[in-house]
Amino acid sequence: MRALQIGEGAGLDRLTVVEAPDPAPGHGEVVVRMRAVSLNYRDLAGLIYPAPTPAPFTPFSDGCGVIEAIGPGVTRVQPGDRVSTLFFEHWIGGPPSPQKAASALGGGRPRGAGAERIVLSQEGVSKVPDYLDDRQVATLPCAALTAWRALFVDARLEPGDTVVLQGTGGVSIFGLQFAKAAGYRTIITSSSDEKLERAQELGADHVVNYKTTPEWSKAIREQTGGRGADFVMEVGGAGTLDESLKSVRMGGHIAVIGILSGFSPPLQIGMMIGTSARLQGVSVGSRDMFEAMTRALELHRIKPVVDMVFAWTDARSAFQAMQAGEHFAKIVLDFAV
Question: Domain range holding 56?
Fold first, then answer.
């Protein structure tokens, strides 16, 4: 079989397609024939910077496939079942822990979803709704679950509350779709008027172009009658946290998810105390959270937004599109293309 592999060093040219042995399932394991995988910023960062995982390794955490074979003791799935991978193979439920975090696919260890066939623990896959196609399912394990956890597990929100979603990447667009289904008022930011128009087509109540309105917190305050937002999906990091703190209401919630503009902002201790805001770091979620999310997806018939599709063997082009910020929501690699 063939697999994507990341070699030593840094840069997109580290990514190659290699021949690899066909995997065989051990006790409690399954072999999944992959149909699609989706890109996350974490995957790009693992390419353009030297990765902490010893090279070579197979990238990607998020994918959809079909169970091809099962090992002894497998009861959760059967051959022919269509499944999603899980970002953390061994985080079933309960709070996070170092041991659960160490089971992340495609980053912390050699195992990843970017191969024609992969072997996983039966605990690391989940059956998926029939109404979603393979590409849509492949977007769920990281971006969708991160947005779900931030909005419905960590935050304490009620219908009618105002949520701010930064940018139009995968997490924020899933956040928009989930927030609309829950009855929240939504404000989305972007540097592109075209992408803001697309967000409005998906139901965004208000939009702010942060390029033309760099102090976008003032627009958030204006749109909330001076009160501030109940929730902010913080994906920018160093370049946006200050504006997020200025945007949130007293006692509000900021879900710290991304580092698109850097790692280390100056920490505004006084502003944090003054707003009594809660800053919650979010690193995806458990299988229990994932399966609660897919039940809600099926109930509301929410369809993930797949903006760009590439052949899985042309993954470099997909990463170049992500690096250039060309996409809206999700980029997917298809194993049938």
Answer: 2-139+304-334
Count of domains forming the chain: 2
* pLDDT tens digit sequence for 138-194: 999 999 999 999 999 999 999 999 999 999 999 999 999 999 999 999 999 999 999
Q: Name which of 110, 119, 55, 114 is nearest 319 in CA terms.
A: 114
For residue 291, tell me if it sits in a domain: no
Contact between 39 and 92 (Cβ < 8 Å): no
| CA gap 90, 10 in Å, rounded | 29
Q: Note the pTM of the prediction, 2 decimals.
A: 0.94
Instruction: Report the C-alpha gap between 161 and 182 in whole angstroms.
Output: 10
Work out the angle at residue 319's Cα, subtended by the Cα atoms of residues 193 and 53, and round it to the nearest 5 degrees: 130
Give the CATH number for residue 328: 3.90.180.10
Name the one residue in this structure whose structure tokens are 């509301």.
Answer: 300
Could you tell me if residue 116 is inside a domain?
yes
Residue 104: what pLDDT? 94
CATH of the domain at 200: 3.40.50.720
Task: Give the contacts of 121 (CB within 8 A, at least 6 positions apart).
Answer: 28, 29, 30, 89, 90
For the chain, what is the radius of gyration of the CA atoms? 20
Question: What is the rounded average pLDDT for all residues in the chain?
Answer: 93
Query: Within the chain, how many helices (H) and strands (E) appear?
Result: 11, 15
Q: Give a yes or no: residue 151 inside a domain.
A: yes
249 and 263 in a single domain? The answer is yes
At 195, is the pLDDT very low, low, confident or very high (cuts 50, 70, 90)?
very high
Nearest alpha-carbon partner for 283 in 125, 142, 166, 168: 142
CB 210 within 8 A of CB 230: no
What was the pLDDT predicted at 328?
97
